[in-house]
Structure formats: structure tokens, C-alpha cells
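tool=predict chain=A
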Amino acid sequence: MKILMVPGRNKFYFYRSLFRKISLITAGAVIQGFAMAVFLFPHAIPSGGGSGIAVLLNYAFTLPMGLGFWLANFVFLIITAPYLGNKSTIGTVYVITVTSVTVDFLEVYVKQPFPNVWIDLFIGSVLLGTGVAMLMRQRVSNGGIGFAALALYKYKNIRPGSSLFWMNGFIFSLTAYVVDWKIIILAIGCQMISTRIINWLLRSTRPKTRPGYDFAWRSSKK
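tool=predict ok
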């Protein structure tokens, strides 16, 4: 039995799928930026290597956190972009740009709801993990350092978890040394909570069986 394909209908489903993917990526980036701006950055808590560099740039040059986050991630992205392709690069640039704009906007117009560092650490880490999990479900990197870890894995066979651990660990230690030693404890706490949230959210959702349209990663199906 021959199935007739309707070009107009296929185009409609393509654009609907693409719009849904971009909407989810945008939502994940905004939630990530919200967690940083409102709960983590006011206490100089770095959620990752890029945000750790943003804290350092803010401390040394009073550079806005959002701009510092964008610059740090963009530098890592430019270095590793030739190894992972244009589609992945475009998706990650979009994510870090939306996150940075969200951070800059919310730092000006939204005040901290809680003055307690531990409450902010917990809520910020939960929200951060939620945003990153949304991005990972759409197969998009949440920053340039994660992109660098993927490039090292692809060409040097170094596991992403190991390279991220050492890169983030070095940046956290430098941030703690320059700003305040308690930052490294808060940063580790943020990593532990957000990682658990990411793992829980990714485990609690079944993988899609139907093919979709990737915004930032090449599909493995050909």
C-alpha cells in the first residue's frame, strides 16, 4: 500500500516541532539565568566554570555578571567550535545569550526573595538543575565549558565528566582564593544539588521514540 506524502502538512509539522524545540530551549535558558541572577550570583556562588569566571570578572573589573558569563562561555565556544560543528555552536551561542540577557535583566529588576545564603543555595540549585535538564532533553549544551568537555572527549578520548570536574574544580578554587574560601563549599553544594535534580528529571522522562528536528546537535539517525 503506497502512502502519499502531503508537502504542506509535512512543512507544518516541521515548523511546529522546530517552534516547540526553540521554546523549550529558551525556557531552559531563562530558568538557568533566573537561578543564577536571583539566588546564586548575589552570594557569588558559581554554578559552573563559566559562572565562576563571571564572578571573578565582576570582582576584579565590576563587569556585569551576565556579560562576564557570556564572554567566558563564548571564549570556550570559539576555541572548540571547529571540533563540534556549526549546528551545535549556533545552539550553544543561543543558550548562553538568552541566559546572559536574563541575568542582566533580573539583576536590575528583581530583588532577592530570601536573605539566607543556604535557602538561596538550595532554591537556586534546584532551579538551575531544572533549566539544565530541559536543555539536555533538547540535546543542547548549557555553556561553552561543557562544549569544551565534549570536544576533549571526541578528539582526546577524555571523559566529559573527568574534564569538567578538573576544569570546574580549578575555576572554583581560583574563585574561592580570590574572593572568599567559603565559595568553594557553596559551589560544591550547588553542583551536588543541581546534578541530582538533573539526573532525577532525566530519569523520570521516557526518551522519545519518534524522530525530531534537532536545533543544536546532529542526529545520529540517518
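The first helix runs from residue 7 to 40. Residues 103 and 133 are 19 Å apart (CA to CA).
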